[in-house]
Amino acid sequence: MASDLNRPVGNIVILTGAGISAESGIDTFRNGGGLWEKHRVEDVATPQAFRRDPDLVQRFYDMRRSAIADKQPNAAHHALAKLDREWHGERRDLLIVTQNVDDLHERAGAKRVLHMHGEALSALCSSCGSRHPWRDDLQHGPACPSCGEQRLRPDVVWFGEMPYGMDRIEAALRKADLFVSIGTSGAVYPAAGFVAQAAQAGVPTLELNLERSEGSDWFDESRLGAASRIVPEWVEELLGG
Ligand code: BV8
């Protein structure tokens, strides 16, 4: 079923990836060759890697967590936060589903944010399952504030683990009037499959990315450029600015 990008937009689902944080100085996964200390990210971000070498994995996330501290949201994060503030009312839902584990959407002021791959600034207890805001290192084995076990791990979704919020994401996609993907290569599922789900339901789909992605053929429209420029332009267009 053809979709119409010009029909009045109501409920919006936005998917963001590492590309929206690139201009804030946070490395993406695949432009640096996806390597960290000569390890492929896919080899470190797994439960098997954590069982095999917990210190290596903890160090990887301690580095990522401390690298976020001095980064600032960029114009793309601020534009989405403005949309979040102004897009309210009858059939004006908005959900920002981010694959990113940084907190730049929130620090720009966005409220309706769902971290489907978890958050670097959170710790998860492998023993009792509790989650805790966390800014320090985890590699020195702090005890879980809830159960006291020495079992805190990074609260991120590794390959092979169930992403957070899938029910909420599916519900939002089912009632979406527009699906927008920003700064993602479309390489990681199930996030990379959201555009196909929207397109097959006849929902208009828009991609805002630096370059064509693995999912570009699914989008009604792909606008290529730096997020800090093309995201504010799109938000102003949508808000009739
Ligand atoms: C799961 C957290 C079962 C940790 C990450 C089919 C169906 C389901 C699963 C699979 C499937 N096929 C394979 C799988 C398994 C696997 C998978 O997808 N593997 C890949 C490698 C093939 N998926 C999983 O294991 C997932 N779990 O499947 O559970 C299930 C199944 C169905 C339904 C429910 C459950 C879990 C995956 C989560 C892994 N964790 N991160 C951490 O961060 O360390 S993934 C990691 O990759 C990050 O979250 C990252 O965000 C994500 C995707 O990368 P991108 O964000 O897109 O970043 P990338 O660098 O790739 O691209 C950046 C883009 O930005 C580029 O296009 C670039 O051009 C652009 N860009 C750069 N600069 C700018 C810019 N754009 C604009 N402006 C700029 N300035």
Give short descriptive properties of this protein:
globular, 241 residues, binds ligand BV8, single chain, alpha/beta, three-stranded antiparallel sheet
Report on this structure.
The protein has a six-stranded parallel beta sheet, sandwiched between helices. It has 241 residues and is of the alpha/beta class. The longest helix is centred in the first third of the chain and has 16 residues, at 54-69. Helix 4 runs parallel beside helix 8 (227-239). The mean pLDDT is 93. It is built from eight helices and eleven strands. It is globular and about 50 Å long. The protein starts with 11 loop residues before the first strand and ends with a helix. It binds ligand BV8. Ligand BV8 binds next to loops.
The first-to-last residue Cα distance is 31 Å
Order of H and E elements: EEEHHHHEHEEEEHEHEEH
Strand content bin = 15-25%
Strand order of the largest sheet: 5-4-1-9-10-11
Strand-pairing-aware structural class: alpha/beta
Basic shape:
globular
Write the layout of secondary structure elements.
Blueprint: E1 12-16, E2 35-36, E3 39-40, H1 41-44, H2 47-52, H3 54-69, H4 75-86, E4 94-98, H5 104-108, E5 113-115, E6 118-125, E7 131-133, E8 152-156, H6 166-174, E9 178-182, H7 194-200, E10 205-209, E11 221-224, H8 227-239
The protein binds ligand BV8.
Short description:
The chain contains eight helices and eleven strands. The protein has about 240 residues and is of the alpha/beta class.
